[in-house]
User: Fold this.
Amino acid sequence: MLRVSTRGEYGVRLMVDLARHYGGNARSLTEISQAEGLDAKIQYLEQLVKCLREQRLVESTRGAHGGYRLARPPEQVRMGEIVRALEGQIAPMICATEGAMPVICDRLDGCSTKVLWGRVRDAISNALDSMTLADLVEANRPISGAGQFVTLTPRARRAERQLS
Amino acid sequence: MLRVSTRGEYGVRLMVDLARHYGGNARSLTEISQAEGLDAKIQYLEQLVKCLREQRLVESTRGAHGGYRLARPPEQVRMGEIVRALEGQIAPMICATEGAMPVICDRLDGCSTKVLWGRVRDAISNALDSMTLADLVEANRPISGAGQFVTLTPRARRAERQLS
DNA sequence: TTATATCCGACTTGATTACTCGGAATAGGC
DNA sequence: GCCTATTCCGAGTAATCAAGTCGGATATAA
Assistant:
């Protein structure tokens, strides 16, 4: 549990693809989705990339030969920015929402579990913010091109979960 | 996002309640749910406490004056054990499931994002395992009894999410 | 024997996720 | 100017999952 949705999954992969091609031509969603084995979900990617554009993480050009490129060099894009753009603020529990001090939960200091969820949130934030797109591209360099991408069926996801 | 479900939320609160009363009589679900403002969900708690018993985190006695007690002193119960019992293995992404090395994703080393999700998973695990029930009870001691517990409606949850 | 509990599996429902659909706007190449 | 490739946009849908319900069996103290 504590899952990242497909928005986060696909969106991060999309950004890694853009990082790999940083400096070159704009990448169309068609190209990206094929490279990532997501050609069936190209329309879904449209939605995701919209969030990324609104957060100024990518820039787009329309029309023929159009597409997307990173708005900044990969070293300057923290993974936390990407995930937040796609999934919203990190908040394992409603009383532990990043940034906003929730008025909604009136247990305030009386709630002993708040400490716990706050720490979980900070741990996630730090993990995400301590890596950049460049780190991910780097890690993969030596074996670039190897391996096919597989999109998991809901069935497979469930199967995996059973392993616990 | 990256939410803990109500299973984790209520289950942790239940365990904190048991920790507060460690050494005393068994606590019935009726008592616990009233103390935590969850009286409406007592049947739901039954489900959760079942998982906790199966993982030997609590012991139960049936019949009148029955109830639940911690199987170990609070200092010896890591929060990670509790959350895993309730929500399953920590796995922000299917390819980053605790323990099991997933055969399902054949991208293997070729997948640059695996590093990211692995780190997120470890960060969560460490945060949870570095706290015990005793830590949570401690943190709350000075103001015990203050503040009412509020169960949030789905509407309120959605409202909170908009804040991002 | 009665009241209070845990125990158990199956069922229901509402919310959320993961898409799909149809079409408008924009830009390059002929 | 027209055709094609592309981004852009809002609304709709279908499947999944979380959250909670229901009915009843079993155990135990008073």
Q: What stands out?
A: The longest helix of chain A spans residues 113-129. Residues 5-7, 41, 43-44, 47, 61-66, 154 of chain A lie near DNA strand C (CB under 10 Å from a C1'). The CA atoms of residues 151 and 157 of chain A lie 10 Å apart.
